[in-house]
């Protein structure tokens, strides 16, 4: 694997680390299986791209994308909490609706950002190769998000959110409005995914309405992979494990695509994704069986 | 001071499985009283707890706490007034959170939660002090996950959690029923000492007539969604399970036939 391919894998690992953190909040903290993600990633990209093309400041455009993502998460949570629609179905409804909304936002299926000012073009003045610049931007973004998330989850409200997912009845008996916590958590989760979309559009030079396809699978794979390689009780480590899982996952994909002897090509990406996810999901039980056998041999 | 007046609760109204759980229940509990509630299956014990905690909505009637009508308040809104220990030891705590995190959740019961750090060192000292009084060595395990503890340990912590903050009423929902006899006795003794120490207004639902008579100041028996027996003071002293059964059949003109109630 070349240096560029390696750095590219780390970079997309960091990007999907943001998605994984969003998925961690919905699937793990709130126990809310949320597929909105497949729509909120292109939503973030569309909003950022459309705003930047209109001459909007790229930082403001990225912030707008996060607000839009939070809105998408709120809609899903509202469908579930207030209208009592099954959580998985509620998220599929939002995801489906977002496809049309993303087309509306851009006015067409894709929007190129060629020569427009982006967060990444701002950093070119550092004089580093382009692939280093975007890596550093992603690294800063993910470290900031991890720090904020860990701080939040250890706050009173964050603890209330964790209790909502862990034991909703107990949470209500302690005076926690579990509906409101679900709304807040889903907003934060999808805002992070939209942030990933906004950064992705700016580093790749454009947004595409179909770029969200299968994102949830990748995000979930990253979370599960992270939990498997770094099974941590401590919150900081559990959050970091999502990012590490995402990087490992993208590296595995890059290795699979770059190893010419296997004969895989770029169009096999989704197949590799599914196979890797299946592998990541069976890893915990295989690991458990192995350690049980070891225990029995003693 | 808790007052329930003419409370009616019907589940699935208008359907084939309509259940009239409470049918005009009246109950007044003065401040500081420890009331034990018995009754056979379907008598309305759980519904009564649900009505007090806000989990079950009223069809008609009124629930007041210290003169404030809370009939329409949701469970979270009532949490500042009502503390609760569930029958299932797993239900009262979050097993994926640590002991101190669970206690921090409880110590914010009925308060607004902001962005301040959830577990402070001041809290840890207070939790340690409260846990050490249990004599179970749990004060050294604040960072352990709740899931590592036994049912009895979890129920003991849930009791401590319920009493970290002031409340108007403590609800105990057959909270020793899922424990082995020795642990159940320990938790019951602990309950009694905590309730007596702080003079808590308490309502304890139990399946055991013996327990209902041995603890508390007053025993109430529910039947078909109403209070059919209500004994306190001198009349209650020295009362045996047989006397209670006799009183029941005199009042109702029928024999009580719930083995669980008679045998436990």
Strand fraction of chain A equals under 5%
- Distance from N terminus to C terminus of chain A (CA atoms, Å) equals 42 Å
CATH domain fold name of chain A: ABC transporter involved in vitamin B12 uptake, BtuC
Shape of chain A: globular
Q: How many strand elements of chain A? A: 2
Largest sheet of chain B: 6 strands, mixed
β-sheet strand percentage of chain B:
15-25%
Span between termini of chain B: 31 Å
Percent range for helical residues of chain A? over 70%
Low-confidence runs of chain B (pLDDT<50, min 5 residues)?
none
Residue-averaged pLDDT of chain A: 90
The pair of chains with the biggest contact is: A-B, 23 and 34 residues
The whole-angstrom Rg of chain B is: 19 Å
Poorly predicted tracts of residues of chain A: none
Strand tally of chain B is: 10
| Helix/strand class of chain A | mainly alpha
Biggest sheet strand order of chain B reads: 6-7-8-3-9-10
Order of helices and strands of chain A: HHHHEHHHHHEHHH
Q: Structural class from helices and strands of chain B? A: alpha/beta
Explain what you see.
- The complex is a heterodimer of chains A (298) and B (264).
- Chain A is mostly helical and 298 residues long.
- Chain A has twelve helices and two strands; from the N terminus they run H-H-H-H-E-H-H-H-H-H-E-H-H-H.
- Chain A has one domain: Orthogonal Bundle (ABC transporter involved in vitamin B12 uptake, BtuC), CATH 1.10.3470.
- Chain A has helices spanning 3-29, 37-53, 58-81, 87-106, 119-122, 130-153, 156-166, 168-173, 178-204, 215-229, 235-258, 269-297, and strands at 110-112, 206-208.
- Chain A has a two-stranded antiparallel sheet.
- Chain A is globular and about 55 Å long.
- The mean pLDDT of chain A is 90.
- Chain B is 34% helix and 23% strand.
- Chain B has helices at residues 45-53, 75-78, 99-107, 121-132, 151-162, 181-198, 209-214, 233-236, 241-252, 259-263; strands at residues 2-11, 19-29, 34-38, 60-65, 68-69, 82-85, 169-173, 202-205, 218-223, 226-232.
- Chain B is an alpha/beta fold.
- In chain B, a hairpin with a 7-residue loop joins strand 1 (2-11) and strand 2.
- The mean pLDDT of chain B is 91.
- The chains are: A mainly alpha (298), B alpha/beta (264).
- At the A-B interface, helix 7 and helix 8 of A face helix 2 and helix 3 of B.
């Amino acid at each position: 694997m070349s240096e560029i391919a390696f750095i590219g894998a780390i970079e997309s690992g960091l990007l999907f680390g943001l998605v994984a953190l969003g998925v961690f909040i919905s699937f793990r903290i709130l126990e809310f299986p949320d597929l909105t993600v497949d729509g909120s990633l292109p939503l973030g990209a569309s909003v950022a791209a459309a705003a930047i093309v209109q001459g909007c400041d790229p930082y403001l455009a990225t912030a707008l994308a996060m607000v839009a993502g939070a809105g998408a998460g709120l809609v899903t949570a509202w469908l579930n909490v207030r209208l009592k629609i099954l959580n998985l179905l509620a998220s599929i409804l939002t995801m489906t609706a977002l496809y049309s909304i993303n087309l509306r936002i851009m006015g067409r299926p894709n929007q190129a950002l060629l020569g427009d000012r982006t967060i990444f073009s701002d950093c070119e003045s550092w004089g580093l190769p382009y692939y280093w610049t975007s890596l550093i931007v992603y690294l800063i973004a993910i470290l900031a998000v991890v720090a904020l998330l860990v701080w939040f989850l250890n706050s009173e409200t964050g603890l209330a959110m964790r209790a909502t997912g862990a034991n909703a009845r107990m949470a209500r008996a302690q005076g926690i409005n579990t509906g409101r916590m679900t709304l807040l958590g889903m907003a934060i989760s999808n805002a992070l995914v939209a942030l990933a979309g906004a950064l992705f559009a700016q580093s790749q030079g454009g947004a595409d309405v179909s770029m969200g396809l299968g994102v949830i699978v990748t995000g979930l794979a990253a979370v599960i992979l992270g939990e498997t390689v770094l099974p941590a009780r401590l919150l900081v480590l559990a959050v970091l494990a999502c990012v590490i899982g995402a990087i490992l996952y993208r590296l595995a994909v890059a290795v699979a695509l770059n190893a010419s002897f296997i004969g895989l090509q770029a169009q096999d990406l989704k197949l590799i994704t599914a196979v890797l996810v299946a592998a990541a999901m069976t890893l915990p039980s295989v690991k458990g069986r192995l350690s049980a056998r070891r225990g029995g041999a003693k | 001071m808790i007052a329930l007046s003419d409370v009616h609760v019907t589940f699935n109204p208008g359907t084939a499985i309509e259940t009239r759980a409470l049918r005009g229940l009246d109950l007044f509990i003065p401040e500081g009283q420890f009331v034990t509630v018995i009754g056979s299956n379907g008598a309305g014990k759980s519904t009564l707890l649900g009505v007090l905690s806000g989990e079950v909505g009223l069809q008609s009637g009124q629930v007041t706490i210290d003169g404030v009508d809370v009939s329409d308040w949701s469970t979270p809104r009532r949490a500042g007034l009502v503390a609760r220990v569930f029958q299932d030891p797993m239900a009262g705590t979050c097993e994926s959170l640590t002991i101190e995190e669970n206690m921090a959740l409880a110590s914010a019961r009925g308060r607004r939660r902001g962005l301040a750090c959830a577990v402070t060192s001041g809290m840890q000292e207070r939790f340690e002090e409260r846990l050490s009084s249990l004599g179970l060595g749990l004060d050294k395990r604040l960072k352990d996950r709740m899931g590592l503890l036994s049912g009895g340990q979890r129920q003991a912590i849930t009791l401590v959690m319920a009493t970290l903050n002031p409340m108007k009423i403590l609800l105990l929902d057959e909270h020793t029923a899922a424990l082995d006899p020795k642990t159940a006795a320990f938790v019951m003794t602990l309950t009694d000492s905590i309730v007596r120490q702080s003079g808590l207004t308490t309502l304890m639902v139990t399946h055991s007539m013996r327990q209902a008579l041995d603890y508390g100041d007053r025993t109430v028996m529910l039947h078909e969604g109403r209070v059919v027996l209500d004994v306190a003071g001198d009349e209650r002293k020295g009362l045996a399970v047989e006397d209670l059964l006799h009183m029941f059949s005199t009042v109702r003109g029928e024999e009580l036939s719930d083995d669980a109630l008679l045998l436990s």
